[in-house]
Design a protein that fits this description.
Shape: globular
CATH topology: Arc Repressor Mutant, subunit A
Number of strands: 3
Strand order of the largest sheet: 1-3-2
Order of helices and strands: HHEHHEEHH
Strand content: 5-15%
Radius of gyration: 18 Å
CATH superfamily: Winged helix-like DNA-binding domain superfamily/Winged helix DNA-binding domain
Largest sheet: 3 strands, antiparallel
Number of domains: 1
Amino acid sequence: MNKEEQVMAEFRDLFNKMAWLNKQKMEERLEGYQSSEAHCIEYIGGHIDANVTKLAEAFYMTRGAMSKVTKKLMAKDLIESYQKPENKKEIYFRLTLHGREIYEIHEALHQSFRERDKAVFGQVTDAQFDGMLDFIETYRQHLDNEIKKLGIVEL
């Protein structure tokens, strides 16, 4: 296995381990909510004027698929839609009181994961972080270009 293959295998293993470790706590605290719902709530709670297009782009989904997710969230009284007086065409989403509660639980879980992982991140130097972030940005740009070539998702 060359270093490129090793890096990709290690990224996959790291991601899978993190997802597995976080899954039990997430399922306990967010019982009755799918992961996609919780992440959609997270996005809407963290972004002003979230709409179907922005959500679809953020999650690499079609607008039609994201529209189904938002309808489901509205049916569960987690989000509500609104329009701006100057733009009656566009529909935006914001969290309801119940949605805000789920958002806060989700954020608290992420904070607990960050606390758990401080033992590792506290040892990383700024130069190491910079190197990792440079690599991630370079790879992200490459993947964005590949996605654009497919013409499926607008980035």
